[in-house]
Amino acid sequence: MKNTDSEAKVASEKDDARSDAEILAQAEQYLKEDRLNDALLEFRKVKDTSLFTAMHNEGVRKGIYIEEVYKKLESPASEGWTKQGESHGHRDFITYYKVESGGKLWCRIESVIEASLYVPLLAVLNETDLYETWFPKWSFPHLGIQQSKKIKQAGRVEQLVQLTVDLPFPLNKREIMFWGFADDDSASERRVGAKLLNVDESFEYHDIPAADKGVTRMDFVADFLFRQCPEDHPALAKSKQEYPEGEKKILVTFVLFCDPKIGWVPHFFQNFCTRIAIGTVWKMLLGIAEDVREGKRKEHADLIMSKREELYDWVEERAEAITGVQKTLSKNDLSLQS
Fold first, then answer.
1. Which among 97, 235, 252, 268 would be 20 to 30 A from 110, CA to CA?
2. Within 13 Å and on the Cβ side, how many CA atoms surround 130?
């Protein structure tokens, strides 16, 4: 269902007989389960908002962010995006972009994966301390992640992360300090969403130091949506991929906004980012996920095993809910089997 259906659901429950205390108790339970969208629907039923605590307000804030993720990423890519190209070699995905003044870049990727790649892909995205071990680096133009550091882990799927990024001379290093969290909407809508956004010293939930001297802090937003892939999705129209027989497909929609805080961006660098870097990073990401699935990335495998009970079993259950099929992982997958 679309966002309008969620709004209709709220409207139909205006006469909810529960007390505000009962509604808040249900919302709090949803927050514990990382069901941010469901929690937001509950919070909107509360009549006396003076009852909201700091935890409730944080839940509302996250819920609104996630609601926007679903609304924007479920909208077709034809609305305001320029198609950069599509890939149909080893993987099927389509890349889109927008460029605004001052080098502000938007990109969008619609990528089809088999369900058994979902957990490994989430592991590569989630294990932020390992980004610098696989993220591509270019010598010309000079570009890449110099350092990735998890500042804080809060609960199962919430992180505060610091990335240091190298840019071509004479530009200073850039820093991205981002807050990331995810929503499990697989039971209600068979979808999962995630939000990453930059934060600064005004961030309410953790102390953020000022950027080091000579380092510029960038604006950054990244949204993810995971849902069952329709068989008529455009990324499959020219597919050469032989997907595993009987295995469901998941559509990954990714939207990135980046403002490097540059007054003027050389045209060659803009073209490099839109035509080469974005697609290369995505192919690398999917390739690393395949390696994780096949047990070729020991650091990732060790982290997955250490977090299996608290996180990755739960992630696998989300894939099953999205696709409606159990046992999404390959029987030969030693890295992800307990």
1. 268
2. 19
* Neighbouring-strand partners of residue 95: 85, 109
Task: Specify the 3-state DSSP secondary structure of 214.
Answer: coil
Domain hosting residue 230, numbered range: 82-293
Say whether both 92 and 69 belong to one domain: no
Whether residue 100 is found in the same domain as residue 66:
no
Tens digit of pLDDT for each residue in 152-201? 999 899 999 999 998 877 778 899 999 999 999 998 899 999 999 999 88
CATH of the domain at 111: 3.30.530.20
Per-residue pLDDT tens for 232-262?
Answer: 999 999 999 889 988 899 999 999 999 888 7
Residues 200, 252: one domain?
yes
Which uninterrupted H or E stretch holds 166? strand 158-166
Contact predicate 251/234, CB 8 Å: no
Number of domains into which the chain is organized = 2
E strands present in the chain: 82-88, 92-99, 105-114, 138-139, 142-154, 158-166, 173-185, 191-198, 215-217, 219-228, 249-259
Is position 92 within any domain?
yes
